[in-house]
Amino acid sequence: MLKQEINELLTQTGPGTPMGDLFRQYWIPALLAEELPENDCAPVRVKLLSERLIAFRDTDGRYGLVDEFCAHRGASLWFGRNEESGLRCVYHGWKYDVNGQCVEIPSEPEERHSALCAKIKLTSYPLVKIGDLLWTYMGDPANTPDLPEWEFARVPAGQAFTSKRWQECNWLQALEGGIDSSHVSWLHGDGLKNDPLFKGSQGNKYNLADRKPFFEVAESDGGLYIGARRNAEDDSYYWRVTPWVMPCFTMIPPRADHPVHGHFWIPIDDENCWAYSYDYHPTRALTGSELQAMREGKGVHNEYVPGTYRPLQNKDNDYLMDREAQKRGETYSGIRGIAIQDASLQESMGPIVDRTKERLVSTDSGIIMARRKLWRAVEALRDHGTTPPGVDTAHQAVRSAAIVLPKDQAFVEGCGDALRVRPGEKHASV
Ligand code: FES
Ligand SMILES: [Fe+2]
């Protein structure tokens, strides 16, 4: 249970809010690289942390992320012409470069032109391609951190795949779903048996056989390692270890030699977020059949309403729930697909769940500690200007693990280096 004011503190991320300031300390995904596929392509509306922005890629291949609205009289630059190294407002022809600097006011007389342009600059943020994503940093330029080093974004091309979907709820309840390993045996029981990107591991048998996991949570430099322990053999436990790095990165523990997946939950505004879902393999290219399954929406990915990043199964069609399939035992919840099983329940809690009413139990210990850590970091930043965990790229070099350990061994000790990025080596997985 949280007090209402703490719930508000952790869920509000607009400009000037304490949590919004925290998010503005990090490089975060702004959009998929595929959304700006070529020079001078159509600009894209991007709402991030409640700010309305426009992303574009100019004639020279430079990326820009600027205020959506023209400095002249506020027309949306989404209608703009992206040409000759800048974005031109189609209302009266004012033109801006990727830094938001006004470079042309064609209606003004020659002699006043340069002086006037020089004074006009839109809010703008850097936009950098790393892996399949375009990343931005929306904080004080004087404190710009090093570029992100997440392993999934840094592996060679062909070893990773990233998708995104619009999720109609606050970022925190989506994140909380990602670090809540106990729901897997229930909600995703069918996926462990059937999904091509999940099925066929020894770990799945332990996962399905023991539905009362014991949780142990350990601190990491950037966040937490959340260990879920289930019975394995007589003398051993099966541990699934999920890293969470502040504020909103998680990695799901692996299964057999499948690619490893995880998420970033990025606030669009306080009632919507982007779920970025990645899959990667640290030592090999993804196979054709794996890529095909990801594109078809299997694993942590999903199908779309054509031409959008809204899931085909969404709250307006009750996620295409099939109660007959549920009765036949094909799905536990009646909803197809792991990602949408999660989204349906997280959205069902309302845009911002009322955390004053919840009743937390032992399997929620990861969530409790993550909230506490966020809260502490928000206060330390607000009151003392302390850089939060997860900004330092060394904090980003984490891995998940799925491992069988003797009963008397603690998971952090038993996993050892397996919880860190080890170039050239695979994840520890059963
Ligand atoms: S509103 Fe954009 S040029 Fe006038
Ligand atoms: Fe889930």
Question: What is the secondary structure topology, with strand pairs?
Answer:
Elements: H1 4-11, H2 18-23, E1 27-32, E2 44-48, E3 51-57, E4 63-67, E5 81-82, E6 87-88, E7 95-96, E8 102-104, H3 110-118, E9 124-125, E10 127-130, E11 133-137, H4 151-154, E12 160-167, H5 171-178, H6 184-187, H7 189-194, H8 202-209, E13 214-219, E14 223-231, E15 236-245, E16 249-251, E17 260-269, E18 272-280, H9 288-295, H10 323-327, H11 338-348, H12 365-384, E19 401-406, H13 411-415
Antiparallel strand pairs: 1-11, 2-3, 3-4, 4-9, 5-6, 6-7, 7-8, 10-11, 12-18, 13-14, 14-15, 15-16, 15-19, 16-17, 17-18
The chain binds FE2/S2 (inorganic) cluster and fe (ii) ion (FE2).
Fe (ii) ion (FE2) binds next to loops.
Provide an overview of this structure.
This protein has 430 residues and is an alpha+beta fold. The protein folds into two domains: 117 residues, Rieske [2Fe-2S] iron-sulphur domain (Rieske Iron-sulfur Protein), CATH 2.102.10.10; 269 residues, Naphthalene 1,2-dioxygenase Alpha Subunit, Chain A, domain 1. The chain contains 13 helices and 19 strands. The strands form four sheets. Strands 12, 13, 14, 15, 16, 17, 18 and 19 form an eight-stranded antiparallel sheet that branches. The protein has a four-stranded antiparallel sheet with strand order 2-3-4-9, with no helix packed on it. A hairpin with a 2-residue loop joins strand 10 and strand 11. The longest helix has 20 residues. It is globular, with a radius of gyration of 23 Å. The mean pLDDT is 96. The site of FE2/S2 (inorganic) cluster has 9 residues, from loops.
